[in-house]
Write a structure and sequence with these properties.
Strand content: 15-25%
Order of helices and strands: EEHEEEHEEHEHEHHEH
Shape: globular
Radius of gyration: 17 Å
CATH superfamily: P-loop containing nucleotide triphosphate hydrolases
Bound molecules: adenosine-5'-diphosphate, guanosine-5'-monophosphate
CATH architecture: 3-Layer(aba) Sandwich
Number of strands: 10
């Protein structure tokens, strides 16, 4: 579990999306490090657009509406399901989460690269719509480490942590759906690996030292 696996899809990175921009998807069990790694990507590439998801869960301390998520009511979310507002949506840990189809399509059609931080259910839906998306799964080094990181983050109650850990095993069992897997042990190494994967698709002619 401690080495990066890489699954070339066989598709030419130049043709990676039927739309113009590249679509990168990052998933991980809760506490796996996807928020930390997504932020590192956005800091590194100021021309990759992070898709801010919508959720019906309550904001955590320090989270801002329109920055971390758009926090909306359940009724509003369900109305948007009926109206076809979502490129994908899912119920995760008892709350709804979704991605705006308009935001995604506008970005990709304008040639922008987009980054989604979504769960496995959402990834399956996005692959149905955008089959050439670059999917990256972030693995914790172990379930014990995952538990410690969730506890150290101090954003969840004990019950919520247990619920997230239960889901984690199920999510990890689906990592085979993803084209790339990074084991998030040492953070700086994980960031380098993630950036190397993204650069491979953005700059296919650039020599690549990190990915073999
Ligand atoms: P997620 O978004 O997947 O729920 P976070 O990015 O919030 O996960 O990470 C969970 C916690 O673990 C955070 O407190 C974060 O700072 C910490 N963390 C993330 N990656 C590492 C790492 N490689 N080593 C140690 N701590 C990490
Ligand atoms: P959290 O509540 O910890 O921010 O996120 C919980 C889970 O919801 C994570 O697995 C995260 O990837 C997922 N998630 C966040 N936004 C979306 C989204 O727009 N769609 C889907 N399907 N999952 C999301």
């Amino acid at each position: 579990m401690n080495e990066q696996e890489s699954r070339p899809s066989g598709s030419n990175p130049k043709e990676i999306n039927s739309k113009l921009g590249h679509l990168f998807i990052i998933s991980a069990p809760s506490g796996g490090g996807k928020t930390t790694l997504s932020k590192a990507v956005v800091n590194r590439f100021n021309d990759i657009f992070y898709s801010i998801s919508y959720t019906t869960r309550s904001p955590r301390d320090g989270e801002q509406d329109g920055v971390d998520y758009y926090f909306i009511q359940k009724k509003d979310f369900e109305k948007r399901i009926e109206n076809g507002y979502w490129a994908e949506w899912a119920e995760v840990h008892g709350n709804y989460y979704g991605t705006s189809v308009e935001f995604l399509d506008k970005g990709l059609d304008s040639g922008n690269d987009m980054l989604l931080d979504i769960d496995v259910q959402g990834t399956i839906q996005i692959l149905g719509r955008y089959p050439d998306s670059v999917t990256i799964f972030i693995m914790p080094p172990s379930l014990e480490t995952l538990r410690k990181r969730l506890e150290m983050r101090r954003t969840e109650s004990r019950v919520t942590i247990e619920r997230r850990l239960l889901n984690a095993e199920d999510e990890i069992s689906q990592k085979g759906l993803y084209r790339h897997v990074i084991v998030n042990d040492q953070l700086s190494v994980s960031i380098d690996k993630l950036i190397a994967i993204i650069e491979k698709y953005r700059y296919p002619n650039k020599p690549d030292k990190c990915l073999k």
